[in-house]
Amino acid sequence: MGALLITIPNDLSGLNNEDKRAFLELETELSSFDTDQAVYLVEESEELKDMISHVAATGGKAPTAAQQLVNSIVSNNYFLTSNVNAVPPVVAAKQFNVITSLTSGDAKSPTIVFCAHYDSAGLAPGYAVQADSNGSGVAALLELYAALRRFYSKGSRPRYNLVFALTAGGKYNYQGARHYIENLNEKEDIELAICLDSLGNGEELYMQVAKDPKEDSIVTRVFNRVSNGLPKNRTIEIVKKKINTAAETLAWEHEMFLMKKRQAVTFTHFKDHKDPMKESLLDTKNNINMDSFYWNVK
Fold first, then answer.
1. How many other C-beta atoms can be found within 10 angstroms of the C-beta atom of residue 200?
2. Fewer Cβ neighbours under 10 Å: the N or C end of the chain?
3. 227 and 258 in contact (C-beta within 8 Å)?
4. Are 168 and 176 in contact (CB under 8 A)?
């Protein structure tokens, strides 16, 4: 049985812009590549470079039949093996949400949920770092918790209960968020769920919604508050996208809340949920722009 071996650079962050665009195109093509053969992605090494160079020099069609015969006799033969055991299919993956809260002291107070999925995915899961999507969302949620908890000390209780949820399965149609919502008390007054997704880059910030918010809604108030807090050289824009219930996966995590009749939005630097960088191996820690992250979280 044959196999396809694809080598990728050791340092993806060192690629220039043209190479990065080509790599994104390759990832897009491979994600829909249909084959019965095994496909392996490995980091390049000197040994692999030598092997590929030799195969390229001797493996092609020779100019004469005699030379072709000589090449087949004297050329080196390469056998690639793996000592990794076959990975059994995951039948029932265990997923764990991590949840904490800050309470106003009144169970009847409205609740605001801050949500960020913490997993990663990519063409080669073992190489997927996903520092921006969604490591930056996780970091933003932790920063918000650290900042807001100061207002919930004894003798000072704001009017909102706050829930901070790190959800699992975000790259698999937001299964962690779904589990969290389905286990909510129907009478629990969630005024708004704010999902944080990919905040570690970009010059613009987007608030993803399913429909235009009303002027007096909490969604509009939150948007205005964030907009007023940004410096003049940065902007925030509302992007409206209706929920496609016929799609295999939802576009954004907040859509899971909306389907359960809970108001929700997503803050992100991605305007389009189909942006290939959302699940690219190029999304390493060097992909994070700390200045952008600072202002997106602030």
1. 25
2. N
3. no
4. yes
At 259, list the tokens.
Answer: 């389907």
Residue ranges per domain, the chain? 3-74, 98-297
pTM of the model: 0.88
- The 3-state secondary structure of 212-238 reads CCCCCCHHHHHHHHHHHHCCCCCEEEE
CA distances from 287 to 29, 126, 293 (A): 22, 18, 11
Beta strands in 71-203 (DSSP E): 98-102, 111-117, 161-167, 190-196
N- to C-terminal Cα separation, the chain: 54
CATH number belonging to the domain at 98-297, selected among 3.20.20.70, 3.40.250.10, 3.40.630.10, 3.90.1700.10 = 3.40.630.10
